[in-house]
């Protein structure tokens, strides 16, 4: 929620002149994205997002994101493709940062999705998984389950965040290591499809955005992340079955998960809960309370973890 | 540079439904304005700014701003008028804040204005002064010269900000008190027309924005504030005569200042420099280094003050 880097108007005019998008009419920094500087750019040719990549997105990863979003957009997915300049380049430099001019998508992010909207989100996720199948790029998941122990260690004293958290995390990491499935269907996944990253108009999904955690991993893990982020009360204690089953129904309209994948969903959702619990705990410890970025309370993901640990957790994914 | 308050999509839809502006297509928080939360709102009827007023703007002042901007817009000035809903109300409530939906203006803020752009800014200021003449509203200038001593006192140890600053400020305040002119032409002025508050496309001014310091004061003081903020090097040590005289030439196309006003310009510019020196020193002391709002270095306005104290300062305002 910030603009870290400013753009000089003359530099902006020179950048826009490389494209067939007319001339600049307006450029306003927007409070979107956690780690980049984003501007809503209006030209005589339309509206665009100008993103300057700050430290978290590695410049070396940008060609992967350009290719991925181009592929998905070509397949009809509502994703914000990077625009190419007249020379065919999508990756530019401005204000000392790598930068892209990106397609603008209408829609707003939901804070209280209805079951119908959850179903639409599930369907959009499934359609994205179908579309990504023909994409040949790969990217290691630096936030995947093999890395969670490292995040826990880097956080330091977990008990200072939530009393008793260290023992809970240690036990969960050991259990996940012992039980993590192998050989499930794998391709590039979004890996962070929270409601903030889905744009909606009414009950229609108009945008899947912020693919900067996209990486190669189990597609069922993507379903688990989406389930964990769309179907719980704000404090994470209660999973709303109407929303949860609607999300799964929407996904099933596009993708039939295998029996092995369905059986693994509670475990993968425990993993997803642990992933966001740990990264939020890490950021809680390492972000000053009054910094530019809002710290997010980790405890709602501890509550989700507990819910997914329960014996009846499979019922949150299926009416069967 | 921040969004302090979030807006719930359902509340937003209900707010927009009060107006004849269609339905919401997009709403993005923008990093604009120092003390309000601003959103770029797109509806099926057009683009607007949604502003939620935070602590610095008093709710009781809002009708004054609505009337002022409505008057100026009616006179053809490029200012962002507040839109009225079907019941005629411009001031609304959302997320526990007073809020207005405001006309969107194209254009970008300059960081390095050319002489031609300075001339256009001077002309736009003069045209605004002509247009405001028929406006009957008044507002006491809470940042006017009678209040600067109070800002200095509230800042605390000025020497901790810049060594020797306390003595400089004490002497300047005494001199300004002894020499402040009386009876100069007075009406509502912008009082903060820095380049960030002027939108430009090429050499054309397309918007004068952020009127939330607008108050009743000498019109020549408004000229002095604009001169101090448009015509100096970034460090405030050097006034660019080409830009300075262009600004004055543009203003003179619209308004002929009296001899008394011209003679007072160096003094008023010393006052303007002191005003921004003091408020920046105050915010420097009272804003944590890592807070949401960027602190601005006060020293460039100490340098401007010194420049305007020089014997030849009148030459910065006139080629005569």
Question: Can you offer a commentary on this structure?
Answer:
The structure is a homodimer. The first copy, chain A, folds into 2 domains: about 10-105, Phosphorylase Kinase, domain 1; about 110-315, Aminoglycoside 3'-phosphotransferase, Chain: A, domain 2 (Alpha-Beta Complex). With about 325 residues, chain A is α+β, with helices and mostly antiparallel strands. The model of chain A has no long low-confidence stretch (mean pLDDT about 95). The longest helix of chain A is centred in the last third of the chain and has 28 residues, at about 260-285. In chain A, the strands form 3 sheets. Chain A has a 5-stranded antiparallel beta sheet, with helices on one face. Chain A is globular and about 60 Å long. Chain A is about 40% helix and about 15% strand. The interface between A and B is medium-sized, with 32 and 32 residues.
CATH topology label of the largest domain in chain A: Aminoglycoside 3'-phosphotransferase, Chain: A, domain 2
* Strands in their spatial order, largest beta sheet of chain A: 1-2-3-5-4
| CATH homologous superfamily descriptor of the largest domain in chain A | Aminoglycoside phosphotransferase (APH), C-terminal lobe
State the helix count of chain A.
9
> Any idea of the CATH class of the largest domain in chain A?
Alpha Beta
Number of domains of chain A: 2
**Most extensive chain interface and residues per partner:** A-B, 32 and 32 residues
Strand tally of chain A is 10
Q: Please report which band the strand proportion of chain A falls in: under 5%, 5-15%, 15-25%, 25-35%, 35-45% or over 45%.
A: 15-25%
Relative helix content of chain A: 25-40%
Provide the succession of SSEs of chain A. HEEEHEEEHHHEEEEHHHH
């Amino acid at each position: 929620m910030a603009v870290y880097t400013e753009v000089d108007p003359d530099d902006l005019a020179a950048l826009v002149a490389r494209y067939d998008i007319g001339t600049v009419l307006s450029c306003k920094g927007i409070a979107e994205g956690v780690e980049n500087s984003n501007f809503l750019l209006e030209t005589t040719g339309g509206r665009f997002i100008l993103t300057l990549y700050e430290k978290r997105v590695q410049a070396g990863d940008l060609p992967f994101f350009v290719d991925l979003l181009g592929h998905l957009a070509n397949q009809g997915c509502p994703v914000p493709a990077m625009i190419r300049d007249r020379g065919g380049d999508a990756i530019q430099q401005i204000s000392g940062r790598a930068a892209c001019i990106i397609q603008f998508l209408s829609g707003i992010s939901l804070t209280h999705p209805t079951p119908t909207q959850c179903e639409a989100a599930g369907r959009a996720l499934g359609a994205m998984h179908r579309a990504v199948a023909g994409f040949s790029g790969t990217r290691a998941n630096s936030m995947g389950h093999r890395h969670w122990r490292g995040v826990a260690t880097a956080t330091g004293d977990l008990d200072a965040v939530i009393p008793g958290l260290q023992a809970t995390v240690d036990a969960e990491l050991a259990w996940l290591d012992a039980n993590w499935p192998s050989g499930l269907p794998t391709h590039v996944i979004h890996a962070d499809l929270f409601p903030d990253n889905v744009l909606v108009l009414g009950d229609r999904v108009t945008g899947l955005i912020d693919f900067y955690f996209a990486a190669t991993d189990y597609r069922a893990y993507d379903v688990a992340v989406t389930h964990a982020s769309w179907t719980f009360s704000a404090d994470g204690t209660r999973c709303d079955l109407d929303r949860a089953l609607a999300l799964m129904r929407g996904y099933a309209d596009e993708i039939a998960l295998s029996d092995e994948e369905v059986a693994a969903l509670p475990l993968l959702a425990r993993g997803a809960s642990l992933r966001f619990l740990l990264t939020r705990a890490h950021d809680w410890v390492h972000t000053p309370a009054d910094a530019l970025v809002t710290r997010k309370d980790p405890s709602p993901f501890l509550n989700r973890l507990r819910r997914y640990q329960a014996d009846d957790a499979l019922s949150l994914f299926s009416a069967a």
